[in-house]
Amino acid sequence: MATEQRGSEKLLSELIKKGSAATPDEVKAAVAVPAAVDYKLLRWLIRGIPPVYYEVETLFQVRPDQVSDIVKSFTANERLRGIDVFIYGIPKPDIAHVSATIAQGEKAAG
Q: Is residue 9 within 8 Å of residue 31, measured between CB atoms?
C-alpha cells in the first residue's frame, strides 16, 4: 500500500519530475532551505534510478556567518545523505560553499 507524499518529500518528487526545468526557488523549497534567506544556489544535479531512488545534489554560496543556519536546515532533513562545507578567503573568510545531497527512495532509509 503506497502512502501519499507530503511536505518536503512531495516537493522533492515534483522537483525530480521537472528536472533541469526547475527554478532555483523550487530547488530551495525541495531541499528545505528557508525562502527568506539569500543563499545563492550555484548548481544542482538530479540523479538516480527511476522510480526507486533519486538524489538531488545542491551547491549553495553563503556568507560565513550563514553557514551554521544552512547546516542546521540541512541536518534537520532526515533524507540528508551528505554535506560538505568549504570556506573561501584567507586570512578573512568572505564566502562559503555548502554542498548537500538529499535522497529520496529506498536507499535514503539506510
A: no
Write out pLDDT tens, residues 39-82: 899 998 888 877 678 888 999 999 999 999 899 989 988 889 99
User: Residue 107, Cβ neighbours under 10 Å: how many?
Assistant: 15
Which CA distances in Å does 17 have to 20, 29, 31, 84? 9, 15, 15, 26
Q: Total structural domains in the chain?
A: 1
Asked whether residue 1 is assigned to any structural domain, the reply reads no
Beta bridge partners of 62: 96
Q: To which H or E segment does residue 6 belong?
A: none
pTM: 0.79
24 is a domain residue: yes
Q: Residue 92: name the closest of 60, 67, 68, 64 by CA.
A: 64
